[in-house]
Amino acid sequence: MRILIIGCGSIGTQIARAVDEMEEFDKVYITDQSHMCAVHLQRILRNVEYVEHDDETMNNLAKELDLVVEAASQAAARHYAPFFLGRGVDTMVMSVGVFADDELRERCFNLSKEKNARLYVPSGAVCGTDGLRAASIGRIDEVTLITRKGRKGMCEESKLRERGVSMESLAEPCVIFEGTAREAALAFPRNMNVSGTLSLLGVGFDDTRVKIICDPDIESNQHTVIVKGEFGELRAETKNVPSPKTPSTSFLAALSAVAAIKRIASNIWIGI
Question: Cα separation of 14 and 256, whole Å?
Fold first, then answer.
């Protein structure tokens, strides 16, 4: 198999390291807006090749790819998800909040069907997605995500200042956002991709409720998923270890992508 990883940041690097060790992949391509980051990653891994990210290069590369993984940003997902799905290439999207854009989401879903290209969305930094997926077959009354992050976990400080919150002077937990998943994905595009995943699985972006709490006394990125419906009630809580280089990103998010890639490559799916 041949794979392209878009983005050589914290998650992209961890994915590249893992895939480089998988025998199912004979070629791993990487690309990033930062030439320096991508070339450095290429040097330290054995089976990785850096490619430019212009559309001509990507178009030619698409002909030999089995899987594309977007691990960069919502902007990258907005461009590359329809780009590769439209060329019949299976595509994994990590920046799930981009699908709060209804037009883009429908376009990607339709391309997936028309071109017989699979669109993958890993569970990311939350647990309980399997239960939510099963529950969605019946009636769901409520889906709520409560996220708590420490000072280092909230990377979008400009967004906090707009809400009158100062990270330096914060002395106790403070609710910095409460609203819909659509609003959360747009307000915090680098922090709240988990709300997008839950929305796609459950009751949609407008009916999924999100509360974000900045807590100066914690260092982990914590997510509590609450689902209520005719099946009963589900409550899943994760206290995630932040990625060392990017504290706003949970280590579990990268692991979820690697686990998904392993299942795709092996054709063995357990727990679906």
Answer: 11
Listed by start position, the domains of the chain span 2-124+252-266, 129-246
Residues of the chain short of pLDDT 50, as ranges, are none
The answer to whether the beta carbons of residues 103 and 115 sit under 8 Å apart is no
The residues assigned a catalytic role are 223
Report domain 129-246's class.
Answer: alpha beta
Q: Is 124 left (phi over 0), alpha (psi -120 to 50) or beta?
A: left
pLDDT in tens, 67-114: 999 999 999 999 999 999 999 999 999 999 999 999 999 999 999 999
Q: Looking at the domain covering 2-124+252-266, what would its CATH class be?
A: alpha beta
DSSP 141-175: EEEEEEEEE-TTT---HHHHHHTT--TTT--S-EE
